[in-house]
Amino acid sequence: MIKNIVFDMGNVLLSYTPQDYIKTITSDETISGTILRELFRGEEWVMLDAGMITEEEAIARVQARIPQHAAFVQKAMDDWHCDLTPIEGMPELVTRLKEKGYRIYLLSNTSLRFYRYQHKVKMFELFDGFLISAKEQLMKPDKAIFEHFLLKFNLIGEECLFIDDLSVNVQGAQASGISAYQFCGANALKEHLKRSGIL
After folding, report:
1. What are phi and psi of 78, to 5 degrees?
2. Which of 3, 68, 84, 146 has the largest count of CB atoms under 10 Å?
3. What is the C-alpha separation between 127 and 105, in angstroms, rounded?
4. Among the residues of 36-142, which ranges form H helices?
């Protein structure tokens, strides 16, 4: 019996589209493409999510590779979280699940920047707990992060439903004994929850 709903964050609860955000920094397609590749899709971004380096270290490393765009690297890092907006229908769905008595958790691969914008996301007020990869220095889809999540919040895998947009993370959760669903929109998730008897 499912008692706990566990959400990924990026592109499940909040829209994360760096390819769109970077266009608000510069209209130059060459520069925007370079920043997207070197910062948001570079190894430093993964290292930030893993808690291996600080933002200052990440910025310095990327700027060293593309010194001609150093100012854009800094600007992009400073403000990227401002582009995170709720996925349509998800705040209402989270509220409905909470009203039904489910405990709500976040399990996300993200950097320590999370703690700077967490309070700005109203639906997070409904959450019972947060597990952030950078803080724990564990990453999805590694089985260890799911095991640590269950231990941290004293939960039973069979009583949890994990929702993520990436199939590899869904598979990681399932390998850890947690029911999982691949997110492809609020409406589809709502129908899945109804079919499953959760809603």
Report:
1. -60, -40
2. 146
3. 6
4. 43-49, 55-65, 70-79, 90-99, 114-117, 133-136
Check: pTM over 0.90? Answer yes or no: yes
> Please, is 94 exposed, middle or buried when counting C-beta atoms within 10 Å of its C-beta (0-12, 13-18, 19+)?
buried
Torsion (CA) 84, 88, 91, 95 in degrees, nearest 10: -160
* Omega within 30 of 0 (cis) for the link into 86: no
Written as six digits, the tokens of 120 are 């700005």
Single out the residue of 115, 133, 123, 120 nearest to residue 186, CA to CA. Answer: 123
The residues near 101 (Cβ < 8 Å, ≥ 6 apart) are none
Tell me the pairing of strands 14-15 and 85-86. Answer: antiparallel
